[in-house]
Amino acid sequence: MGFLSIRESSFTFGGPINYDKAHAGAIVSLVAAGGLSGFAVILAITLVAIRSPPYKGTHVVAYFLSLLFANVLQAVGTTMSARWALEHEVTAGTFCSFQGAIKQAGNLGMALWSFVLAVHLFNLLFMRRKSTDLGQYLTLLIGWFCVFFLVAIGPLAIKRKEKGAYFGPTGYWCWITHKYPLERAFLEYFFEFLSASSACVLYTAILLCVRGNIMRSNGRWRFRFVPPGQSWQLALCRDIIDTSMMRIVARMVWFPISYTILLLPISLARLMAFSGHKVPFWATILTGTIFNLQGLVNVIIWVCTRHLIPDINALPVFTTPRREIDLDSSEIHGITPYALPPSPIEPASESKETSEDLDGEDEKLHTVPLSALPLQTAGFLDDPEIGLNRSDSNVSYWTTNSSDSQNAMIPKPKWSAALRPTSWRR
Q1: Phi and psi for 48 in degrees, rounded to 5?
Q2: Residues 176 and 100 sit within 8 Å (Cβ to Cβ)
Q3: Of 137, 379, 414, 426, which residue is the least packed, with the fewest Cβ within 10 Å?
Q4: What is the span of the domain harbouring residue 309?
Q5: Does the residue 377 lie in any domain?
Q6: Exposed, middle or buried by CB within 10 Å (0-12, 13-18, 19+), for 168?
Q7: Is the Cβ–Cβ distance between 141 and 226 less than 8 Å?
Q8: Does 387 fall in a domain?
Q9: Is residue 37 within 8 Å of 54, Cβ to Cβ?
Q10: d(CA 199, CA 121)
Q11: Using an 8 Å Cβ cutoff, are 97 and 155 in contact?
Q12: In a domain, 294, yes or no
C-alpha cells in the first residue's frame, strides 16, 4: 500500500486524530523506519565498545557515541507510535507526554552533538589545538545537561494552565502542542537549523584547510585558489597530518550534509502546517520516515569512513603547528616542471657529410705513426695471434687507414647503446 493511495487529511499539528486502517498501516511503516535506525545504531555502539577504534585518543569517540545515543532516543520516540497504530487513536496522558519529551530530546541531541563533533574536529584539524580530558568531560556534562534542560523547562516552567498540556497529541504522534508555537520554533527548530548550517560551514573549512586551499601566511589566514590542472601545488602546503586526514574529512562532510538533507522535508511540512495549509497525510508520513532515518544514515557514513582513518599513534601529535609559507615567495609554486626542447632536424645530405667527416676524424684520432710507438710495440705487432685484417674492415676490430700503411692499427672501442656516454645521446 503506497502513500499516494491514502486520502488527504486536515493535518494541523493541533489535536488527537482517529486512525483508520490506511493511517495505521502508514504509521507502521514509520515505526519500522525508526526501529531500523535504532537497531543499526545499537549495533554500531556495540561494535565501538568492543573494538578499539583507531581514533580512540582524540575524544571523537565520546562525542560520536553521544550522537548515536541521541539517534537511539529519536528511534525510541518513533517506535512508541506503534501504540497509536494498534489503538487507532492518539490519546493524551503520561505515555503521550513521555513520547513528546523523548522525541524532543532525541532531536535536540542530534542537533547538539552534530555541532559539537564538528567544532571538535575544527579545533583539532583546522586550529591544531589540544583538547584536554577535563574539557571532554565538561563538554559531555554540559551538553547533555542542556538537552534535558531544554526538554524539562517546557512542562516545568513554560507550561500555562490556560494553554493546556505542553506535551500532547499533535496529529499522528505526541510532541509539543500547537498552543506553544514559539517553544516549537526556539526550543527545537532553531537548534536544528543552527546545527546544520554551522556544521556545513565548519566541515567545509576543515576540508579546504587540509587540502591546502586555506593556509596561514605571515600570521594571517589566506584562501588560495588553484586551477584544476595545477592542483599539485596544494600538496606543498600540506604536512603529514593533513595528508593523512584529507580523505576522511572529505567523507565526514557528509554527516552535516545528510543531516540537512533529511531535515529539510519535514521542516517544510511543518512550516506549511504552521502557516495554515493542509498537509497531505502521505507527505507527513513520508517526511517523517525520511527524518527518522538519521541513525541509519549516520551508521552508514561511519562504516564507509572508519577504514579510511589512519593509525593515530603513527602520526605526529595534532597540536604540531603548520609551517607558514610566504605567498609572495617562489616556494608557493614549488619546482616548476620543464622539458628540454628537441634538437633541430638537419638535412639528410649535411647529416651524411658530417657523419663521414666525424668518422674520418675519428679514424685519425686512433691512428698513430709507427715510429712514435715505443719499442715494446714491435712484439705487439709481430704477434701472429693478433692479425691485421685490411681486406674486411666490417669484421675487423682494428682501425685502418689505407692511405698510410706505415701507421699502426690501434683497437677502436665500440660502444653499445647501454654503455654509450650520455653526452652522445640525443
Answers
A1: -65, -40
A2: yes
A3: 426
A4: 10-333
A5: no
A6: buried
A7: no
A8: no
A9: no
A10: 10
A11: yes
A12: yes
Could you tell me where the beta strands, DSSP code E, fall in 283-420? 367-369, 407-409
The answer to whether 218 touches 324, Cβ cutoff 8 Å, is: yes
Amino acid found at 167: F
CA pair distance 176, 182, nearest whole angstrom: 10
**Does 240 map to a domain?**
yes
> pLDDT of the chain along its 426 residues, tens only?
333 333 333 344 444 556 677 777 888 888 999 999 999 999 988 887 777 555 555 677 888 889 999 999 999 999 999 998 888 888 899 999 999 999 999 999 999 999 998 898 888 777 777 778 898 999 999 999 999 999 999 999 999 989 999 999 987 889 999 899 899 889 999 999 999 899 889 988 887 877 767 776 666 777 777 666 555 455 555 555 555 566 666 677 788 888 889 999 988 888 887 777 888 888 888 999 999 999 999 999 888 877 656 555 555 455 555 555 555 555 544 444 445 566 666 555 555 555 555 445 444 444 555 454 454 444 444 444 444 444 444 444 444 444 444 444 444 445 444 444 444 344
Report the domain count for the chain: 1
CATH classification at residue 61: 1.20.1070.10
C-alpha cell at 325: 609559507
Dig out the grid coordinates for 249 from the structure. Answer: 574529512
The predicted model scores a pTM of 0.67
Whether the Cβ atoms of residue 246 and residue 234 lie closer than 8 Å to each other: no
User: 253-271: string of b/e by CB count within 10 Å (b at 16+)?
Assistant: bbbbbbbbebbebbbebbe
**Contact criterion met (CB below 8 Å) for 108 and 151:** yes
Type of residue numbered 41: V
Q: Measured in Å, how far apart are the chain's first and last C-alpha atoms? A: 77
